[in-house]
Design brief:
The complex is a heterodimer. Chain A is of the alpha+beta class. Chain A has a single domain, classed as Ubiquitin-like (UB roll) (Roll). Chain A contains two helices and seven strands; from the N terminus they run βαββαββββ. In chain A, a hairpin with a 2-residue loop joins strand 4 and strand 5. Chain A is globular. Chain B is an alpha/beta fold. Classes of the chains: A alpha+beta, B alpha/beta. At the A-B interface, helix 1 of A face strand 5, strand 6, strand 7 and strand 8 of B. The structure holds zinc ion. The site of zinc ion (ZN) has 9 residues of chain B, from helix 9. Chain A: Keywords: Cytoplasm, Molybdenum cofactor biosynthesis, Nucleotide-binding, Phosphoprotein. Chain A: Its main location: cytoplasm. Chain A: Belongs to the MoaD family. MOCS2A subfamily.
């Protein structure tokens, strides 16, 4: 099974990927959250500097990057959110 | 006789009116004199904030438009008046935050900032004015707040929050607002709030984006639950090099004020387990539901390893400031001074001047003969830029005939990126481009503006 999802990149991740948003047409599902993150890293290797510093969210819910299995559906939103520190 | 009595009574009444007017004038003057604020250079114990029994007629009039809200009401207003809030950072977030808290009638505001007001702050730090340049930000902010609402007690702290003073300070306040501009301070404030059990209303902003979360609140996560490991310092962009549109921290600071007021008045915040993100470009707010606090968290977990404040600059590998630090990546013979470069220019010695700043900065100002190729294009070998570089170098080589290693001088704003670029170019020399001698111009264009050409713009 695969799903078509929209990935949103925020803050530093948008700068590193050069994108604010992209469609991924055939993401396997269910997939571990680590697997999902690795898939994003494959597409945008520069994101690796954010490893351990990023909030990953699926359908606007936080998912810890690890073994947790995530079921994806068509049209789901995945967000990559590194912290901002400026003020 | 009766005429005279009437006359005297009228006279007396007149004089009494004068006395009342004089008394009022005196009281007013004394009040404004009392508001000449003392700047605190260290943390001292404060007297506890007293709860008001009821609102005065002046309070009722001043706050009438918010008293009409059933969500606030008289009790909410009384709650605000007995709440103290520590504002960490009187910059782009702290200014609007403090302004709205004071306007709403918060009891006490601690305004902390170690910095002075600079011209480049004014586009976003809206409590400071042109006449406040070089003044301590904490004092400038406190004076502006006093003009807005003299009944709010303001305590300006001109100091750097540190592991030594943070707990003593934070313990004295009910709510803490993180309006700081750097990573070590964010971890320090978080840990101090966890250790002293205070809710932390935290916001941040950069470029066209903002984030907000209330940490350590009603079982929600702390900053470390979310970000257990600090980011490598070279991946952190701050407002002084990334830029920020002033209204973005303005919106986030107002949002922080809203959550502080909800907590202080007793309504409670709904951002305790949420990360709210603001995208100014799309004019969109999004929010991510977070997990509760983590049992394994180093500071708020079940077996915390952080039980007192640590060295946060060491932990984060960066200084607790948003000022750029000076890198030292090259040896002395790989660098020249701006004076050296001036004489190279004056003697018209053939060379290539490479400006490695992003285009948006080159548009602000540049030296007339420079070739612009951003550092990122060099690092990622952007083909059209590499080609341009190859062409410029081989042209220079032809022009120089005998010399086989044409000189390339690299410049940027402060002299950090130019050093990185020299390292990249040395790897490219002899393979991706003709062999070159590449050097960095120490201190960059800002050193040029300071030492060589005072008419050159600084930013
Ligand atoms: Zn925690």
């Amino acid at each position: 099974m695969t799903a078509q999802v929209t990935v949103l990149y925020f803050a530093k991740s948008a700068e590193l990927s050069g994108l604010k948003e992209e469609e991924l047409v055939a993401v396997p599902t269910p997939i571990s959250s680590q697997g999902l993150w690795s898939l994003l890293l494959q597409r945008h290797p520069r994101l690796c500097v954010l490893q351990h510093q990023v909030v990953l969210a699926v359908r606007q819910q936080y998912v810890a990057i690890g073994d947790e299995l995530v079921a994806l559906g068509d049209g789901d939103e995945v967000a990559v959110v590194p912290p901002l520190s400026g003020g | 006789m009766t005429d005279e009595v009437g006359y005297l009574k009228a006279q007396l009444e007149e004089k009494e009116k004068d006395i009342v007017a004089l008394k009022n004038k005196l009281a007013h003057l004394e009040k404004s004199n009392a508001s000449v604020l003392e700047l605190y250079e260290k943390v001292t114990p404060l007297t506890p904030l007293k709860a008001k029994a009821s609102l005065s007629n002046e309070d009722i009039m001043r706050y009438s438009r918010q008293l009409l809200l059933p969500e606030l009401g008289v009790q909410g207003q009384l709650n605000l008046s007995k709440t103290s809030v520590l504002v960490v950072g009187c910059g782009g977030l702290g200014c609007p935050l403090a302004q709205y808290l004071a306007a709403a009638g918060i009891g006490r505001l601690g305004l902390l900032d170690y910095d002075e007001v600079e011209l480049s702050n004014l586009h976003r730090q809206v409590l400071h004015g042109e006449e406040n340049q070089d003044q301590a930000k904490a004092l400038s902010a406190a004076n502006a707040i006093k003009r807005l609402n003299s009944t709010v007690e303001c305590i300006p702290y001109h100091l750097q929050l540190s592991s030594e003073n943070a707990l003593q300070l934070i313990q004295q306040y009910d709510i803490v607002a993180d309006c700081s501009d750097n990573v070590p301070t964010r971890y320090l404030v978080n840990d101090a709030c966890v250790l002293s059990g205070k809710p932390l209303v935290s916001a941040s902003a950069l470029r066209m984006e903002g984030q907000l979360t209330v940490y350590n609140y009603h079982g929600g996560p702390c900053y470390r639950c979310l970000y257990p490991v600090p980011p490598p310092s070279e991946t952190v962009t701050n407002c002084s090099d990334g830029g920020v549109l002033g209204v973005v921290p303005g919106i986030m600071g107002c949002f922080q004020a809203l959550e502080v007021l909800k907590i202080a008045s007793g309504q409670g915040s709904s951002c305790g387990q949420q990360l709210v993100m603001f995208d100014a470009q799309d004019a969109r707010f999004r929010s991510i539901k977070l997990r509760p606090k983590q049992a394994g968290c180093a500071v708020c977990g079940e077996n915390p390893s952080v039980t007192r404040l640590v060295d946060y600059e060491a932990f984060c590998g960066s200084a607790a400031t948003d000022k750029c630090r000076k890198l030292n990546l090259l040896s002395r013979d790989q660098r020249i001074t701006v004076q050296d470069y001036k004489s190279i220019m004056d003697t018209a010695e053939p060379h290539l001047l490479l400006d490695v700043r992003p285009l948006v900065e080159v548009d602000i100002c540049h030296l007339p003969t420079s070739l612009n190729i951003p550092l990122s294009s060099l690092e990622y070998r952007k083909s059209e830029h590499i080609q341009l570089l190859q062409e410029s170098i081989s042209q220079l080589k032809q022009q120089m005939e005998g010399d086989c290693r044409p000189p390339v001088y690299v410049i940027c704003k402060m002299g950090n990126d130019s050093q990185k670029a020299v390292q990249v170019m040395e790897k490219m020399s002899g393979s991706e481009v003709d062999s070159i001698t590449v050097k960095d111009i120490s201190g960059g264009l800002m050193a040029w503006a300071k030492r060589i050409d005072p008419t050159f713009p600084q930013y």
